[in-house]
Design goal:
mainly beta, 4-stranded antiparallel sheet
Length: about 290
């Protein structure tokens, strides 16, 4: 894992590796991070680790100088089935999504059917880290990105549902749906900037995404060719980033659209520093990140 310091006065910024302490050799060898999120008050980083089965949520502490991650614990629970995105809401509480009911490595056919038949078996779970207890609080097709809009509302992406569900958080941490934002692409992850605007990132063409996912492993972008295939000819898939202003009657507008993926493909997450006017897009299979300004 690396850390990018973009606001240090350098026009190019600086990228440096994070020193990860506390992981044993077995966990280091199997560490495969997917969704992650940061709780700044305690400098706690939550990371979904799909390198183990069943996948745990790993908990780290980030050093004050952002150079070191210290492993604290692994969270395992029967409700953590196919974890994807994490949203901390306090120093000991999180919401996370399970994108499917059926896990690909166990029941590949059923998982595929769940995806393409838009079956609402993905879910959102509230989890208390002090008591190690949780409960399912929402169910929707291919639950993906989770983002806290404010103290009372949570946004959850439904990739195959082509929508973002807006829930009101109840006193018992259950969720009541209040709105559904419809889009015309597969939503992946969600982020809220400091102005309260929701950044919605995803994939314009699902079939192209599937083709990339199946064939990307045949290409090695760092060391030339693999399987005799030219990295320059690897398949591409598009990117899209939309913005919602957070108001019930607000509009969704497109910030970035690359239908072919030739500029920057397979977008999965967008973050924006609204004060500095700098944003970043991350791609599933891209080498590097895309930085943008207004």
């Amino acid at each position: 894992m690396n850390y990018y310091q973009y606001a240090d006065g350098s026009s190019q910024g600086t990228i440096r590796p994070l020193d990860i302490k506390g992981l044993d050799d077995v966990k280091k060898a199997t560490f495969h991070p997917l969704g992650l999120n940061f709780w700044p008050e305690t400098r706690t980083l939550y990371v979904v680790n799909h390198g183990e089965h069943p996948p745990p949520i790993e908990v780290f502490t980030l050093s004050d100088d952002a150079t070191t991650l210290t492993y604290e614990r692994s969270i395992t629970h029967e409700l953590i089935r196919t974890p994807n995105s994490i949203q901390p809401i306090s120093d000991h509480e999180i919401y996370f999504s399970n994108d499917h009911h059926y896990e690909v490595r166990e029941q590949a056919v059923l998982a595929k059917l769940e995806t393409f038949l838009h079956i609402a078996k993905g879910n959102v779970v509230y989890f208390n880290l002090k008591t190690n207890e949780g409960k399912q609080v929402a169910e929707l097709p291919f639950a993906n990105g989770v983002a806290q809009l404010n103290n009372t509302h949570l946004a959850v992406a439904s990739s195959t549902g082509l929508a973002v569900h807006i829930y009101e958080i109840q006193p018992d941490h259950s969720l009541v749906q209040r709105q559904r934002l419809l889009v015309d692409f597969w939503v992946d992850n969600l982020r809220v900037d400091s102005e309260g605007k929701l950044l919605i990132t995803g994939h314009p063409y699902a079939l192209l995404l599937e083709r990339v996912a199946k064939n990307q492993h045949k290409y090695n972008l760092d060391h030339g060719r693999r399987d005799g295939l030219d990295p320059g000819q690897r398949p591409r898939a598009g990117s899209r980033v939309d913005e919602w202003d957070g108001n019930a009657e607000g509009k969704i507008k497109t910030l970035f659209l690359d239908t072919t993926g030739e500029v920057y493909g397979v977008s999965t997450t967008t973050a924006r520093d609204a004060r500095r006017g700098i944003g970043f897009v991350v791609g599933l299979y891209e080498k590097g990140i895309l930085q943008f300004e207004p």
